[in-house]
Design brief:
By secondary structure, the protein is α+β, with helices and mostly antiparallel strands. It has three domains: 1-74, no CATH class; 85-147, K Homology domain, type 1 (Ribosomal Protein S8, Chain: A, domain 1); 157-204, no CATH class. It is 26% helix and 24% strand. It has four helices and nine strands. A four-stranded antiparallel sheet has the order 8-7-6-9, with no helix packed on it. The longest helix has 25 residues, at 47-71.
Length: 213
């Protein structure tokens, strides 16, 4: 550019980046620019060069968008069944140990049995991903079954068990909220005190005032 002779090349590959004095990336829509990024190796960058680069970038962008629109003119309602799906949930940090389990036993079991991938950050952010909707939902259900803090007004299914204590009448009963349905035993479960009523296998948990928990 020292002799004021230059050429502005436009492409979407970047093969000439190593030989040029400027690498200028411009992204956007038909309505305008949404992002720009530039690497330069010269101190002689001028406004005419930038004007030419922006004009060529706009022309190329509109042409690319036209080709894209000819193939698909609006976003699909959902992603392909082959595309991974991801869900991010947040759990109390003190529940991380319960989710992971001793030596990672619990989280590995969830991954193996649901087909979902489960990753946990130290702040309690849990990333659950799966190729199919079914595996994703199964992974979410298992994680929430272990980590979700019970909320007033929600209904949970589980097993009501009576604990025999000679010194205490009436006998206390406990509700086990199991994170996976159809399994009789699971090492991680929550136990809630219930009151009254006969022993029966599946129950809606009610507190002592008969309010939904």
């Amino acid at each position: 550019m020292h002799d004021k002779k230059y050429a502005v090349l436009t492409d979407i590959v970047g093969l000439e980046d190593g030989n040029g004095d400027m690498d200028f990336k411009v992204a956007g829509s038909k309505d305008g620019i949404t992002a720009m990024q530039m690497d330069v190796k010269t101190l002689n960058l001028t406004l005419p060069v930038l004007e030419a680069a922006l004009a060529q970038a706009k022309s190329a962008r509109l042409e690319i968008l036209k080709v894209i629109a000819s193939a698909i003119d609006k976003p699909r309602d959902g992603v392909s069944k082959y595309a991974p799906k991801i869900k991010i949930i947040r759990i109390p940090p003190d529940k991380i140990g319960e989710l992971i389990g001793p030596g990672g036993k619990t989280i590995k079991k969830i991954i193996a049995e649901t087909g979902a991938q489960v990753d946990v950050d130290d702040d309690g952010t849990v990333f659950i991903s799966g190729v199919t909707k079914e595996s994703l939902e199964a992974g979410i259900s298992r994680v929430e079954g272990i980590t979700k803090v019970p909320t007033a007004g929600e209904v949970y299914e589980g097993t009501v068990k009576e604990e025999r204590r000679k010194e205490q009448k009436p006998q206390p009963r406990f509700f086990e909220k199991r994170p996976q349905r159809g399994h009789d035993k699971y090492p991680e479960h929550d136990r809630f005190r219930t009151s009254g009523g006969p022993h029966f296998p599946t129950s809606r948990f009610l507190d002592k005032n008969k309010k939904r928990f």
